Structure prediction request, 372 residues.
Amino acid sequence: PKEVRVYEFAEAINKPLEDVIEALRELGEERDKNDFLGEEYIETLAEEFDVPVEIYDPLAEFDYVKKYDEQCPEEEFDTERPPIVTIMGHVDHGKTSLLDRIRNSRIAAKEAGGITQHIGAYMVEKDGKKITFIDTPGHEAFTEMRARGAQVTDIAIIVVAANDGVMPQTREAIAHAQAAGVPFIVAVNKIDLPEANPDLVKSQLAEMGIMPVEWGGEYEFVNVSAKTGEGIDDLLETILLQAEMMELKANPKCPAKAVVIESRVEKGKGPVATVIVKNGTLKKQDSFVCGKTFGRVRLIIDDLGKQKKEVLPGEPAEITGFDEAPFAGDTLVAVESDRIAKETAEKWKEYLERREKSKTTKATLEDLQKMI
Ligand code: GTP
Ligand code: MG
Prediction:
C-alpha cells in the first residue's frame, strides 16, 4: 500500500516520466517505469520536484491499535505505573523459585516435571510500590515465549545459576532483551550452594560485553538465593531503582489497552486470557476488540484467584468474555460498544488479509518483471 510505481508517481505529481527516472538516476538508483518506489524515495523525489506529498496507508483506518495510540498519546501519560519485569534464563536456573520466594508462593513445586511450560504474570508490592512479574520457561522449546515475554517488558531479569554459569538459553534470553531494547538486571542465583561461583558468572558475562557495575560497567548484578531468601530485597530495590529512572507512566483515565500474554479455553468459562494492561483502566463489562476476536469483560481475576472490578495500568489479570480465544501477543483495546467491537475485529481481519494479499501480489509482479 505504501509502494507506488515510478510511472504512477510521475503521473501523480504531473511531471514527465523521463524526468523522474533521471532524478532517480542522479540519486544512484536505476529504476524502470514499472519499478516500485519506497517511501523514502517518494519523500526525496517530492522534495526534488518541490511538490507536496502526503503518504497515507489506505489500510491505516483498519488499525485499531494505531488509532488508539493517536487518541491516547504517550504525551498525556501522567500517572506512575508499576514496571513490568520479565524473568528469563536457562532451564532450572531458578526463575520460578525466585518468584515464589518474592511472592511467598509455591508454584515451582507444583509444576509438572519441575519445568515451567507457560507464561505467568504476578504482582507484588515492595515498600508500597507495585511490581508486575512475568515468569517464562527456560526450556529451549519455548523460544517464542521468551521472545514474547521480552516484547511486553520494561525490565528483564536474567537469572543465572551460580553453580552452572552461562548456558545457551542465558545467551538467548539476553539476545531477546537486547533485541527488544529492554534493560536488564542479572540475578546470580543459588549462591547458597557450596559449589556456587558468582564471580565465574560475572566474568563469563563480562566476556560477552555485559560488564558488572562493580567492575566499572553498567550492568547491575545481584547475588541471590531463592532457597534462603538472601539478596531478594536487594534485587527488588534494584528493580525499583531502575523503574524509577525509566519514569514509567500511563493514563488510567483512558479506555484500556492490554496485551494478551497467554490464552486458553476453560470448561464453563470459555476462553480465558492472561493480559497485562499497558494503558488505561480495564473494567468489568468493557466491550473490547482483541485481534480477530472481540467480546465483553465478564470476569476479572487477579493472580491470587480473587475477583476484581478493574485492572490498572501495568497490572496483570485473567479475563473472560471473549467470543473466541485470542492469540498471545494480540492487543486488546476497549471500545464504546459491542457493535463497534465486532466491527473493529472484522476490519482487523480484513486488514490482515489485505496486507497479506498486497505482499503476495507485489512478489508476483516482481517475479514477472524478472522473467521478461
Ligand atoms: P524452568 O522454568 O523450567 O526453566 O526452571 P526455573 O528456572 O523456573 O527453575 P525452578 O525455579 O523450577 O528451579 C529449578 C530447581 O532449582 C528446583 O529444584 C529448585 O528447588 C532449585 N533451586 C532454585 N533456586 C535455588 C536456590 O537459590 N538454591 C538452591 N539450592 N536451589 C534452587
Ligand atoms: Mg520456571
Notes: Confidence is low (pLDDT under 50) at residues 360-369. The CA atoms of residues 126 and 236 lie 7 Å apart.
